[in-house]
Amino acid sequence: MTILDKIIAHKAQEVAQRKEQVSVQVLEKSGFFAKTNNSLKTSLLNPASSGIIAEFKRKSPSKGIINGNVTVEEVTAGYVKAGAACLSVLTDFEFFGGTSEDFLKARRTNPTIPMIRKDFMIDEYQIIEAKSLGADVILLIAANLTPQRIKDLGKLTKELGMETLLEIHDEEELNRSLNQYIDVVGVNNRNLKNFAEQNVNASLELAEKIPAECIKISESCISQAETIKLLKSVGYKGFLIGETFMKTENPAEALKKFINEVRS
Length: 264
Known about the structure:
Elements: H1 3-21, H2 24-27, H3 40-45, E1 52-56, E2 59-60, E3 64-65, H4 72-82, E4 86-90, H5 100-109, E5 115-118, H6 124-133, E6 137-141, H7 147-159, E7 163-168, H8 171-177, E8 184-188, H9 201-206, E9 215-219, H10 225-233, E10 238-241, H11 243-246, H12 251-263
Parallel strand pairs: 1-4, 1-10, 4-5, 5-6, 6-7, 7-8, 8-9, 9-10
Antiparallel strand pairs: 2-3
Helix pairs in contact: 4-5, 4-12, 10-12
Protein name: indole-3-glycerol-phosphate synthase
InterPro entries: Aldolase_TIM, Indole-3-glycerol_P_synth, Indole-3-glycerol_P_synth_dom, Indole-3-GlycerolPSynthase_CS, RibuloseP-bd_barrel
Keywords: Amino-acid biosynthesis, Aromatic amino acid biosynthesis, Decarboxylase, Lyase, Tryptophan biosynthesis
């Protein structure tokens, strides 16, 4: 059983429990449910955008605890001030140490920036839950979803006024997963089945294979400003980075320095 298999098996149990605890009707009464969407597409296409999707992540299955000494409010507000184009907040607790409360705190602290709910989405309930938390963007991971499930979940996401970020790792996932409900295509440089890669080769290999009309972002294994410049040269508009910033004492300051290096 791969790490991804373990995550999805646990996620199925977790979602079943949450369905029993909080009904869809209760979620739909959330104050954030009627919120106007902050568009990731618009943010990334802005010529002045840094393109950086800054992630709040306490731990990962491969690295363990990354940073347990900072608050989500402090870090995300700092990210926004430093020039992030979007925020990504983990809500998976078992493997990544994130919670729905983390997302809510970040949303209340940063009401106008696009925010991605970073989790392993397998059920319509999670999409509705994300809307209730104030999410703007839903992450759908091709590695753990069939093409039909991607389409179904993407359709619901669109109906609720949010955007869909489709995450792929290789050409096979790209070819079977694209549909009319996808807003942004993200290439995860790390293979979720083993979390082994430490480079952006996947993004470079897929750059020309992703349809030109798609907005594309590169995710993970990015730690150098020169890497951003290289990825921009082959058409990437966004860059999801978490660990590079989170492993420092001051993630926001690390982001600010990084953006200055990219623009120099």
